[in-house]
Amino acid sequence: MNRRVLGLAALLALPLAAACAPTDPMGAQLAAQPVRVVFFEDDSIGVSEEAKAVILDAVAVARRYPGAPVRVLGFSAPEPGLAPTVALSRARAERVVNEMVAAGVPRAQITQQGRGAVAFDAAPIQSRRVEIHIGGN
């Protein structure tokens, strides 16, 4: 009889154990995704081969998780006059979005924003970038 009671107790504990298990493995995988960064030359929206590789890596992840939001943020180096830098950062973000859409990511999955000028820590190219955030990162 003890075996039956133990067996029944084990069966009753299964739903409790399942409730304690991670319920959103996709969310955990998306949270672990790094921010992908595409760099640009001065006053340019041209995409280098290295930048295309970064974009295609982001595309592969976005296509693997079709429900995951993709945020594309454009930046530019500090320049005299704010308007040209904001326009350039928007153009860079738009360029990356267009590359992603052309590679198969639905446009509705992507939001974009040109953030304008940001100061750099070590090298000016740090400011001339687009960040691709996938999921909650």
Please provide a written account of the structure.
This protein is of the alpha+beta class and 137 residues long. The protein is 46% helix and 18% strand. It has 4 helices and 4 strands. It has helices at residues 2-20, 25-31, 49-64, 82-102, and strands at residues 36-39, 70-76, 110-117, 129-134. It has a 4-stranded mixed β-sheet with strand order 1-4-2-3. β2, α4 and β3 (110-117) form a beta-alpha-beta unit. It is globular and about 45 Å long. The model is unreliable at 5-21 (pLDDT under 50).
What's the short story on this structure?
This protein is α+β, with helices and mostly antiparallel strands and 137 residues long. 46% of the residues lie in helices and 18% in strands.
Low-confidence stretches: 5-21
**What level of helicity do the residues show?**
40-55%
The count of DSSP E runs of length 2 or more, i.e. the number of strands, is: 4
3D shape: globular
The largest pleated sheet is described as: 4 strands, mixed
Taken as a percent bin, the fraction of beta residues is 15-25%
SS field, number of helical segments: 4
N-end to C-end Cα span:
53 Å
Structural class: alpha+beta
Average pLDDT rating: 81
Strand order of the largest sheet: 1-4-2-3
What is the H/E string?
HHEHEHEE
Question: How much is the radius of gyration in Å?
Answer: 22 Å
SSE arrangement:
Blueprint: H1 2-20, H2 25-31, E1 36-39, H3 49-64, E2 70-76, H4 82-102, E3 110-117, E4 129-134
Parallel strand pairs: 2-3
Antiparallel strand pairs: 1-4, 2-4
